[in-house]
Amino acid sequence: MCGIIGFTGYERAKDVLLAGLASLEYRGYDSAGISCFTKDKGITTIKSVGKVSELKALVPEDLASTCGIGHTRWATHGGVSRENAHPHTCGNVTLIHNGIIENYLSLRDELSTTGRSPVSDTDSEIAAMLIDSLYTGDAHTAIAAAVTRLEGAYAFCILFADQPDKIYCIRKGSPLVACQTEMGSIIASDMVALLRYSKDYFVLEENVIACLTRDAIEVTTLEGKVLASDYLTVTWDVSSAQKNGFKHYMEKEIHEQPDALLRTITPRLVKYSESGEFYMLPDFTADGIPDTLFLGLTRIIITACGTAMHAGMMGKILFEEFLRIPVTVDIASEFRYQNPILDANTLVITVSQSGETADTLAALRLARSKGARTLSIVNVKGSSIARESEYVFYTHAGPEIAVASTKAYTAQLAAFYLIAFRSAFACGRMPIEQCAKYTEDLSSVVLSIERVLERRDEFKTISRHLIKASDLFFIGRGMDYALSCEGSIKLKEITYIHSESYAAGELKHGTLSLIAPDVPVIALATQHDVLAKMVSNIKEVRARGAFVILVTAKDAVIEPELYDFRIDLPETSDRFAPFTAAVVLQLIAYNTSYLRGLDVDQPRHLAKSVTVE
Ligand code: F6R
Question: Has 2 been annotated as catalytic?
Answer without folding.
Answer: yes
